Amino acid sequence: MPDPTILLVDNGSLEPAATLGLRAVAAALAGRVGRLVEPVSLLHSSAVPAEALDGVPAEILEPALERRCAAGTRDFVVVPLFLGPSGALTDYLPKRLERLRARFPDLRVRIAAPVGGSVECDPRVVDLLEENVRRLLPAGQRPAVALVDHGSPARAVTVLRDAVAAGLHTRLGDAVRAVRPASMERRAGPDYAFADPLLGDLLDQPGFDEGTVIVAMFFLLPGRHAGPSGDVAQICAAACQRHPGLRTLPTPVLGTLPGLVPILADRLAAVLSIPSRP
Questions:
Q1: How open is the CA angle 96-97-102, to the nearest 5 degrees?
Q2: For the segment 110-127, what is each residue's pLDDT rounded down to a tens digit?
Q3: What is the pTM of this model?
């Protein structure tokens, strides 16, 4: 049988930088594994004008699969560019695949584990964050560290983030005064309180409302949330206005680090060792 088509899939964004970042990671992964890796988004990115993407339109997963199926391809591997098991992977993606199987019953799609792992936190993710934080440690100071993600309605994603924060605290030790996880945003109501605290609230708390706070970005790609002028940056700027003695230092997103590619390669290898089944 021919080799499966490999798709590196992110959630998608209306910001061109996110699609360009996805393409860069896909190219790096392809170079490592010696196979073509095609960058595709679940949502949104097809609305970005092609001229903002070097003249190449972004692809959305469902029509991308449909087009390839119509051309005769049936075997695919999806490598999620997601940190954890978000609803996009556990609910939205399976529903899209079932729709396609109504037309292409022999469609085969194998889905790799997310970057952070499917059961336990991959310690290499902590390695990446530690690398980012240590680059920003100010001489002669012990900053606080706020590990911030988007905030998810899926408890498992927050459990992963909190495990990463605990691992980061252990790694950094006395180099910092504290490490706390936070969400950029969360859904309203007590059912989603597990995502607390919000980053804006954390930056009002003692120990995080003055001095240097390194904002460790638990994001993979830039975009509306994690870009230089994105939501996280605006939350930090507002906190610094409220607290003149506060200075926040954001780390780069994880997708810019070479260490991400070996993790993705391992996720892909684990799936390719499983026989293809409908």
A1: 100
A2: 999 999 987 678 999 999
A3: 0.93
